[in-house]
Amino acid sequence: MKPRGDVTHRGGCHCGRVRFEVDAPAAIEAIQCNCSICRMTGFLHFIVPASCFRLLSGEDALVDYRFNTGTAKHRFCGTCGIKSFYVPRSHPDGIDVNVHCLDAGTVASIAITQFDDNDRDAATAAIAHLSQAG
After folding, report:
1. What angle do CA 128, 26, 16 make, to 5 degrees?
2. DSSP H or E stretch at residue 12
3. 32, 38, 92, 114: most buried, per Cβ within 10 A?
4. What does the DSSP assignment read for 60-119?
5. Under CATH, to which class is 13-126 assigned?
């Protein structure tokens, strides 16, 4: 059951093999991170509780990539190379959806908060609420 006021956003990768849906507010709280992988890929973070995310298709197309601590589980489409979601290091109990991979029509607004990877502990604490079911 969706929390009151939430909508079902749908999205996926470029080639369409990976498709997902996520129950979340129409007004999105997004995060822009300055770490190397986020900066290089242009990932715009939208962290939600894992219970609000459903992978509809493409599990067999996903390729995992881990680096540094190995905590984050980066998942890319093996066909087109797009990372439409992953399990973040900062919120291993949640799912981090790439706002750029959401289909048009359900996002009312996007508020962007900067995440400074150079002060990871403070930045993580400031967004701790995002992966918690409300």
Report:
1. 95
2. strand 6-12
3. 38
4. GGEEEE--TTS-SEEEEETTT----EEE-SS-TTEEEEEGGGBPTTS--EEEEEEE-GGG
5. mainly beta
Q: What is residue 127's three-state secondary structure?
A: coil
Q: pLDDT tens digits, residue range 100-126? A: 999 999 999 999 988 777 777 777 777
Share of the chain above pLDDT 90, in %: 59
Q: The pTM is what?
A: 0.81
Domain boundaries, the chain: 13-126
pLDDT band at 62 (very low <50, low <70, confident <90, very high): very high
